[in-house]
Amino acid sequence: MGHLYTPLVLLWAMYGLIAARSARMVVIDTDLFSDVDDVGSLAIANVLHGCNVVNVTGIAINTHSKYGALAASVINTHFGNLDIPVAAIRPLSNHTFFDIYAFRSHGEYAAKLAHNWPRSINDSSMTPTPVSLYRRVLSSAEDNSVTIISLGFLTNLATLMDSHADAISPLMGRFELGKDVISGAGLASLAPSSSPIRAAYEWYVGRCSTLRESWDPITTLYGILGLEPHPELGIGKTFEYANDFGYNWVSPDGSNAWVNDSRVTNQHWLKLTDLTTNTSLAIASPG
Ligand SMILES: *[C@@H]1O[C@H](CO)[C@@H](O)[C@H](O)[C@H]1NC(C)=O
Ligand SMILES: *[C@@H]1O[C@H](CO)[C@@H](O)[C@H](O)[C@H]1NC(C)=O
Ligand SMILES: *[C@@H]1O[C@H](CO)[C@@H](O)[C@H](O)[C@H]1NC(C)=O
Ligand SMILES: *[C@@H]1O[C@H](CO)[C@@H](O)[C@H](O)[C@H]1NC(C)=O
Ligand SMILES: *[C@@H]1O[C@H](CO)[C@@H](O)[C@H](O)[C@H]1NC(C)=O
User: How remote is the CA of residue 57 from the centroid of ligand 1, in Å?
Assistant: First the structure.
């Protein structure tokens, strides 16, 4: 996967602009823990949830540190969205992030957010598991009405697909997942002033910078906005399909490659439309 270095600048300024209507339901499955782009994704989702562009019906953490769910709760609390449920994969651990991958300056943020900002979740062990969250959300939703935005590990979704009928849902996991599952994409993010979002970026990126190009925020944006323009937000058509056919082939070692196969037409990769480089997305900093 390459990176998109498109300077999508996020200005945060649109609360209350949107008339109430039934918003698209989204569950975000995130590896919030190491890379800070998940914080950017949850910030975007929280703002758009707050102005009714999307109904974030859950955040599922797919990394084992107990600080993932706590950091997600800090972000939800910061944006005033106490109604967004957070689920955490088990078993929980006490791990904090240390950059043993690059040994550059990438710093820990999840435990710091958990310790320094208010949050509604006291203890990650009180959260539901991701599978129970998914089954509750999906069993009460109409077909094709829930978009799952997958950032990071696919463990939660694999477990859901292997799950069997239970008290929550009479449906088998595989059947329920005839819904959108999205992964991929990138963004340079500018976090706003003294907020947990900005602090997380500063801690992670280091050396007083908050600039971070990444895939997750733009994936989140696509999962919420889709291919349509959003005149109610002052946003034109942002994404379009870049292929007519083919599929993503995932090898057992986890690497992937695009295969040109004219028989497969239901998988796509995205590009930003020409409009997008000039698009400023408004996302307000509430404090
Ligand atoms: C969001 O979806 C949930 C169902 O998961 C529903 O209970 C809630 O009323 C919805 N919220 C809005 C604002 O539509
Ligand atoms: C995490 O730390 C807490 C408090 O020190 C301790 O009670 C708990 O057993 C630890 N959990 C794990 C999985 O090590
Ligand atoms: C969280 O802990 C505080 C202080 O220990 C307590 O007052 C509050 O009720 C707890 N909240 C929940 C949701 O358990
Ligand atoms: C796949 O097809 C596209 C469009 O037909 C072409 O541009 C591209 O080079 C092909 N890629 C491979 C690996 O064959
Ligand atoms: C975007 O900006 C460039 C120059 O900055 C301009 O040439 C182009 O027409 C603009 N595109 C749109 C869609 O506004």
Answer: 7
Of the ligands numbered here, which is closest to the C-alpha atom of 122?
3
Residue 2 within a domain: no
In single-letter form, the type of residue at position 257 comes to: A
Bond before 91 cis per omega within 30 degrees: yes
Place of tokens 């998988």: 267
Q: Structural domain tally of the chain?
A: 1
Distance CA 54, CA 180 (A): 15
| Residue 264 belongs to domain with CATH number | 3.90.245
The answer to whether position 265 is within a domain reads yes
- Sorted by sequence, the CB contacts under 8 Å of residue 190 that are 6+ apart come out as 9, 10, 210, 211
How many Å lie between the centroid of ligand 5 and the Cα of residue 212? 24
Binding site membership of 145 for ligand 1 (Cβ less than 6 Å): no
Determine, yes or no, domain membership for 236: yes
Measured CA distances, 31 to 21, 109, 229 (Å): 30, 13, 29
pLDDT in tens, 69-90: 999 999 999 999 999 999 999 9
Ligand 5, atom 4: nearest CA belongs to which residue?
278
Burial class (CB in 10 A: 0-12, 13-18, 19+), 178: exposed
Which domain range does residue 79 map to? Answer: 9-283
pLDDT single digits (tens) 127-177? 999 999 999 999 888 877 888 888 877 788 888 878 776 656 555 444 333
Which residues' Cβ are closer than 6 Å to ligand 5?
274-275, 278
Specify the pTM.
Answer: 0.77
Which atom of ligand 2 has the smallest separation from the CA of 94? 1
Residue 272 counted as domain residue: yes
Contact between residue 268 and residue 241 where contact means Cβ atoms under 8 Å apart: yes
